[in-house]
Design goal:
mainly alpha, about 70% helix
């Protein structure tokens, strides 16, 4: 087997503000997507009730 050189990892400090900003951004996007998804499902059901019944 080939010999591998030891990997050198550069560690950077992670701050709570960075983590919270990332998670807040993800949560806002998730809630916006969920709202649009529920709205689309309701709109489809309403259209089905109008045109099928």
């Amino acid at each position: 087997m080939a010999d591998h050189a030891p990997a050198a990892y550069e560690m950077v400090e992670v701050k709570a503000e960075d983590i919270m900003a990332e998670r807040t951004s993800f949560y806002d996007g998730f809630m916006k997507g969920t709202t649009w998804g529920v709205g689309a499902a309701v709109a489809i059901l309403v259209l089905m009730a109008i045109f099928i019944a």
